[in-house]
Amino acid sequence: ACAAGLRDADAARALRQRRLPNLRAELRAARFAAALLFAAALLLAAMQSDGSYPSSDSNHWVFVVLCQFLREIWYFFSGLVHKLRKCCCGPKVAPGPSTSLTATKRVCLIRHGQGAHNASIKNWKLIDPPLNEVGLAQAAKLCETLKAGEIKPREFDVVCVSPLTRAMQTAKGGFKGTKVPFHVTPLLRERMGAPCDAGKPKSELLKLNPEMRGWGGIDQLEEEWWGAGTGETEWALLERVDALKAWVHARPERTIALVGHGGMFARIIGHHLPNCGHQWVNWTTEASDGTVLV
Questions:
Q1: Beta strands 255-260 and 104-111: pairing type?
Q2: Closest Cα to residue 162, out of 214, 109, 126?
Q3: Rounded to the nearest 10 degrees, how much is the dihedral formed by the CA atoms of 9, 14, 19, 23?
Q4: What is the distance, to the nearest Å, from the Cα of residue 249 to the centroid of all Cα atoms in its chain?
Q5: Could you say which of 87, 142, 180, 235 would form a disulfide bridge with 174 (CB–CB 3.0 to 4.6 Å)?
Q6: Which residues pair with 257 in a beta bridge?
Q7: Measuring CA to CA, which residue among 63, 34, 274, 259 is closest to residue 164?
Q8: pTM
Q9: The dihedral formed by the CA atoms of 292, 180, 173 and 126, expressed in degrees to the nearest 10
Q10: pLDDT tens, 177-202?
């Protein structure tokens, strides 16, 4: 038992050592982000020196973009603190009989195709916008793109998808003609940055997409699954990312598609995927509290 405890402690130490180089790089990037934050704050203060909301359409959308820019920087710093806490504290629970140090899943992160809100900032005011013509064509092409890869669409064990319309349309287009089971989960929803990130009630989704009745997770989906009126802090978003990883690792499938959103996936891989872009990652369970992307 003593020897097993020492091995677990060594494994935790090794995990922290592997994370340190990435954290040092992020600290260097933090200095640059701080300068950008200061510059953005000056611009915002100059535009809103009297504290009033911009009256013209042009100023309004400059204000919206600046707010989103500031939020992204805040996300960066929140993520850095989140990782530092994990690095310093290490695993909360040592690996046990039910947690393998070599458990690996192949996960394909797929961002939705282009929606109306992607084509124009002014469409950010739309609630749960669907794919536009470009996005529908991208979703259709996604199926061919995946077929050209090492793992074909029909070889996936499950397709997990956000309940936002644009993500579901992308998943249905990308996996058209396959018998891969679908599972809907609000863990994959976009971070709440604008009205376009709010969703439709479950009852409305079922009317518009009757096939959802046969999807996994539909019984557990709440009527207002996107947290209407409650909002989501930046820190809560990072906790949701951790919850998503834990949820994926608790599933029995080994090859999984996650169809979701750029802002959410950026918290996982560190950059925004293009519309209908995808990226494969190996998720390896190092301990019961988290994962390592290889």
A1: parallel
A2: 109
A3: 80
A4: 16
A5: 142
A6: 108, 159
A7: 259
A8: 0.70
A9: -60
A10: 999 999 999 999 998 878 899 999 99
Spell out the SS3 assignment of the chain.
CHHHHHHHHHHHHHHHHHHHHHHHHHHHHHHHHHHHHHHHHHHHHHHCCCCCCCCCHHHHHHHHHHHHHHHHHHHHHHHHHHHHHHHHHCCCCCCCCCCCCCCEEEEEEEECCCEHHHHCHHHHHCCCCCECHHHHHHHHHHHHHHHCCCCCHHHCCEEEECCCHHHHHHHHHHCCCCCCCEEECHHHCCCCCCHHHCCCCHHHHHHHCHHHHHCECCCCCCCCCCCCCCCCCHHHHHHHHHHHHHHHHHCCCCEEEEEECHHHHHHHHCCCCCCCCEEEEEEEEEECCEEEEC
Spatial distance between the Cα atoms of 4 and 184, rounded to a whole number of angstroms: 39
Tens-place pLDDT, residues 224-255: 999 765 567 777 888 899 999 999 999 999 99
The two tokens of residue 191 are 């971070």
